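Progress narrative, work stream C.
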Amino acid sequence: MENLQEAAIYVGTYHKYNCGSIEGKWMNLSDYSDKEEFLEACGDLHSDEEDPEFMFQDWENIPEAFIGESWLSEKFFEVRDKMDEMDETKQEAFSAWLDYYSFDIAKKDIDDLVRDFQDQYFGEYDSEEDFAEECVRTMEDLSDFARSYFDYEAYARDLFMDGYDYVDGYVFYCR
């Protein structure tokens, strides 16, 4: 997922576009606390029109679930602010999780989404096999002798065929 703190939209209007102009401006969404404040700034930008119909001609660092040519989801600001509360690793893991599981983040409650993520996130690992080794290390009743015979590759294969997912270096378990 894109870095939502660096989200920007090129805002023009349909009237200007239909008159042959792409006049507008790149607007950084980090400058606005919510959609209402953003739309007010868009109105100020295009104050030469009586009732401007905004056209989002291009955008950066905004997931497709949040934006289209003529709309921006109010959820964008909620998700951006919630992600800002996470450390960088968790932000990246959360982004990977959202992209992989294709949640409709523009409609789902952000607190429920974060809670689901926290329940399903197991951490960052170099490989599926590294995660399997970590799982075996937590088995207190398994002797070092038995661990030396453990087939971590096969165990990892079985784990990731049975509900675990390895996405961009992060492990999730989607129940």
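Work stream C, second folded protein:
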Amino acid sequence: TVEPPAAPSTFFVISIPVANDSTRVGELVGDRDDFLEIDDDTGGMKLRVAMPLPPEFGVPDVLGRAEVGENLAVTPTANSFSTAIGDLSIPGQTNPEVEVRLSTLLGRELPTGTTIPQLPGSDFDLEVPLSLANVTALEIATGGLSISLDNGFPMDIVNLTLILRDNGAGGAIVDQIDLGTVAANGGSASGRFSLAGRTISGDLALTLTGGTADGENLTVDGDPSLVINSELETLLVTEATALIPQQEFQDDQTLNFPDDRIQVIEAVMSEGGLTLVVTNNIPIIMEVELSLPDLQDAEGNPRVFLIDSLISGVPRTISFDLANNTFAPADPLQMRIAYRARTFASDTEVTIRSAGEIDIQALTQKLVFSRVQGRLNQISIALPEEERSVEFPEGLDNVNIATANLSVYVTSGVGFRADVDILFTGTNAKGTETLVVRETFNRGNPANPVRDVLSVGGDELTRFLNHLPTTIKVEPVVIIGAGAEEELIETHHFVSLDSVVFLTKPRLTILADTRIDPDPEDVSFRDSEARDKIETNFNEAVVLTTIESSIPVGVGVRLYISSDLATVYTNPTITVPDMSLPPFQVPAAPVDANGLSDGTITASDSLVLGKQDVLEFILEDDPTKSLFSGVRVTLPATGAEVEIRATDFINVIAGLRVELELNADLLK
């Protein structure tokens, strides 16, 4: 507007509006409600990042959910076992009775029914066979040979010694017994040959040495005899070449679990199996009964398999399908394997050693449990990963968040206390920061899930958020059980990580000058005539500003003018004050005892402009041309924590007052 001259003034004044901006902090950040939480009552602002991003209304989506599923699984450690047959049992046998006639002993026959007045004694040394039936050789651990004699001679036998010889070993002495005197006419004696530790053949002989006593008035009836009876005891041998009767031996072995994550009291398997490869390394056919004592099939039957004819040197493979089996181990971290072997009695002589073995190779598969009664220790369940972009308000990189809190929303449908481990990876143009969180949450069950909110704070969390990541990746793992509680768990039990929410406290430290750039406004003033008069009659010009602020820190204000709306703050035509000068300064608004804004402060200022600067504010009469004004507010570094609220504001009114000299040129 052009003001008419008033006498006696010799100047004419033009007033041009430059800025009339009212900026409320809440309006600047209103489009960032995804990341800022504003208290409607107090105006307090908190940085808030939620994952997943909840819908505007209703329940947020679940960040990640996983059922226990195949995590209830263990693969027992494969193993191989060898069991020796051990000492062989050779049954005892009674040898045929041996008679030594008196005529054989004396070398002549005596008349029967006669009385001999005197018969001088004589020595004898004779050998009788004592062969063992169906035996070629034995290496004996324990056992012996019992022998008894009945003296039918009419005279005593004196100095009697029995020697057991092995004719298969050149007549080597095996053992001997000194029986002394055996009375006449039915006297008897007995003894035992020890065979322990002896190696013998089946070709044994008994040597008798001694003599007959002198006799008087001996009555001889027939040809009396010395009767020898012998009995081989049941022997335990370490090696035998013989007809081998049936032998039995057995063993129990275990397959260990690789760790103590699943400690089973009773469980039901949904899948899995066990393969046993059995090899007979003993040169005789046998049958082997294999059993899994800890397992029953779906009908409650024990798991037993009989190999009815296992030939020496030919492996046999047996597979147990364990699906739907009930597993109730004696040891919660083992599976037992039992086997009983019975050899077939040989029909020909064979050589068997006590060290002869059967070998069992146990090939394991993953055992998946559908139900476990027992203890769990650190069972890991991976949840889906999540990644999202974050767009923080500009200038936030110049502030330092004072404190922050992380809320982790979880739901437990599993009957064990559990931990959630979350690896957060934040990335921006400057690099990557990580944050690891582990928190414990309470047990629940599928029918009545328990929801829990876990709160996390601390310096590491604040450091992570001050990195101001532009993307945040979440990698969660739930870890079930601590190995102490006995509970029931099934595959459909679940855990879910519903969401994670980062939330800062409203107080922060401004580390460096931080700019607030409100949207520019149109301040177009089109007047070609006024431009001409300023060119010819310009006297002076001044920009007058009045700034009202409720911000609790001092601020600087600078006006930016441009004909291009997009470049007001980046490529202005003119700034007021000039960029070489400091901005208009406004002191901090008054605060209450808590450091919160408690009123406003107003500052007025003026700045002289030259003619060329003034012309930048006035456009030609061209409707296609426009002029835009922006008010940049600069918050300086505070050095201490402050709280700026959404309700804080700054009002800026600026006008240009131009004086023109009143002369003839002005009135043309």
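The two ends are 17 Å apart (CA to CA). No further action is required on this item.
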